[in-house]
C-alpha cells in the first residue's frame, strides 16, 4: 500500500472529522466508515478492570467491548492504562479493547530491578514479551496495537518478536529516544554512564524522584507536553502521580531513566511485518515533528498523520481526533484481512 503524508483536522463544533492530505489528494482509507460513525452514537459501554497473572506477577488491565477487532492500548513512560480513559469507552462500541499496565506501572507489580543482578529487567524485550503473552492468554486473537510515546517502542518490539499475533500498529508520538547511548557523541558517553550510576546507586536518585513526584511538579511537566493545557485536569494529575507514590515505583523510575540501551524505532520499523500508521501531535515539545517526519518514510509505514495543535499525548489531549483515526486504520486492515481470508 503506498505511503501517504496526510494532515488530520478535527472540528469538534460541527461534529465531523476531515482528513486533508498535504498533496491535495484524499487517501481512500482516511474517512471513518459509516459503521464507525453509527457506533459512535451508541451508548457507552462499561469499562472493567481485571488482574492477569503473568509469570507470578499481578498485571492490571482494563477491558471493554464484546465484538469487533481486538485493540491493545499501550501507555508511555510514567503513565498507565488510565491514560486511555477517553478512548476505551468510545472504541469499545465497535471493538474489543484492552488497556494494560506494563509491569512496573500503576496497579501492576513492581519487582525491584536489583533482584535481577546485572541483568536489566525493565527493558523493551521484557515488555514486548509481556504483551505477546497477554495477547495469547487474554486477548486470544490477532490484535492491533495502539501506542503512545515509549509504548510505541514496546509495541514495535512485540510485533517484531511475534509478528503472527498482530494485524497493525499505530504509533502516537513515538519516543525517538534522543538520549540513547548510540545518539550521544563518544566523548559524552562516560559522563552519561557516571550520571546513571549516581542516580541508581546513591541517594541522589531518590532525592530527584522526591522532587518530581509532587502534584505541582507533575502538573508542570504535563503542561509542558500538552499544547492545550486546559486538558491538564486535577484528575489527570492524580492518575499520573498516585501510582508513582506506591512501593517500588521509585526503583522502576530510576531504572528506566538510566536505560539508554535497547532498540531504537529506526531499528525496529524495518523489521515490522504488519502495517504501521504514525500519528504526530505537531506541537510536541519533546519529540519534534520535524524529526518525526523521517519515520514516515519507512516501507512499513503507510501513513503519517499530522495532528494540529496537539502535544505529546494526543489520545488524552485530543481524543476526538485520535479515536476516528484509530477506527479508520483498524477498519481498513480488518476488512483487508477478512477479504484475504475469504479468498483463501
Automatic annotation (TrEMBL):
PANTHER family, per database record: ALPHA_BETA-HYDROLASES SUPERFAMILY PROTEIN, HYDROLASE
Signal peptide: none
Top-level taxon: Eukaryota
InterPro entries in alphabetical order: AB_hydrolase_1 (IPR000073), AB_hydrolase_fold (IPR029058)
The AB hydrolase-1 domain, residue ranges: 71-323
Organism of this sequence: Prunus armeniaca
Listed name of the protein: AB hydrolase-1 domain-containing protein
One Pfam family this sequence matches: Abhydrolase_6
Amino acid at each position: 500500500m503506498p505511503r501517504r503524508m496526510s494532515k488530520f483536522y478535527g472540528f469538534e463544533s460541527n461534529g465531523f472529522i476531515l482528513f486533508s492530505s498535504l498533496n491535495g489528494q484524499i487517501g481512500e482509507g482516511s474517512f471513518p466508515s459509516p459503521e464507525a460513525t453509527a457506533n459512535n452514537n451508541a451508548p457507552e459501554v462499561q469499562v472493567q478492570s481485571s488482574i492477569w497473572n503473568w509469570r507470578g506477577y499481578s498485571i492490571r488491565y482494563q477491558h471493554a467491548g464484546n465484538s469487533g477487532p481486538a485493540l491493545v492500548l499501550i501507555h508511555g513512560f510514567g503513565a498507565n492504562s488510565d491514560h486511555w480513559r477517553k478512548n476505551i469507552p468510545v472504541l469499545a462500541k465497535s471493538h474489543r479493547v484492552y488497556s494494560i499496565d506494563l509491569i512496573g506501572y500503576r496497579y501492576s507489580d513492581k519487582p525491584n530491578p536489583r533482584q535481577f543482578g546485572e541483568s536489566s529487567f525493565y527493558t523493551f524485550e521484557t515488555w514486548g514479551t509481556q504483551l505477546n503473552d497477554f495477547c495469547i492468554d487474554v486477548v486470544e486473537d490477532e490484535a492491533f496495537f495502539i501506542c503512545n510515546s515509549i509504548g510505541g517502542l514496546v509495541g514495535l518490539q512485540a510485533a517484531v518478536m511475534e509478528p503472527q499475533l498482530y494485524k497493525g500498529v499505530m504509533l502516537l508520538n513515538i519516543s525517538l529516544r534522543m538520549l540513547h547511548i548510540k545518539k550521544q557523541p563518544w566523548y559524552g558517553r562516560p559522563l552519561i554512564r557516571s550520571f546513571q550510576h549516581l542516580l541508581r546507586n546513591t541517594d541522589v536518585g531518590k532525592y530527584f524522584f522526591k522532587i518530581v513526584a509532587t502534584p505541582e511538579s507533575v502538573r508542570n511537566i504535563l503542561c509542558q507536553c500538552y499544547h492545550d493545557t486546559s486538558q491538564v485536569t486535577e484528575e489527570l494529575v492524580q492518575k499520573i502521580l498516585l501510582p508513582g507514590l506506591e512501593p517500588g515505583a521509585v526503583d522502576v523510575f530510576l531504572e528506566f531513566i538510566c536505560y539508554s540501551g535497547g532498540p531504537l524505532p529506526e531499528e525496529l520499523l524495518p523489521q515490522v511485518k504488519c502495517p504501521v500508521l504514525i500519528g504526530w501531535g505537531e506541537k510536541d515539545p519533546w519529540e519534534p515533528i520535524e524529526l518525526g517526519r523521517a519515520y514516515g518514510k519507512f516501507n512499513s509505514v503507510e501513513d503519517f498523520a499530522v495532528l494540529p495543535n496537539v502535544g505529546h499525548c494526543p489520545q488524552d489531549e485530543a481524543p476526538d481526533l485520535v479515536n476516528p483515526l484509530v477506527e479508520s486504520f483498524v477498519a481498513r486492515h480488518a476488512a483487508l484481512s477478512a477479504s484475504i481470508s475469504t479468498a483463501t
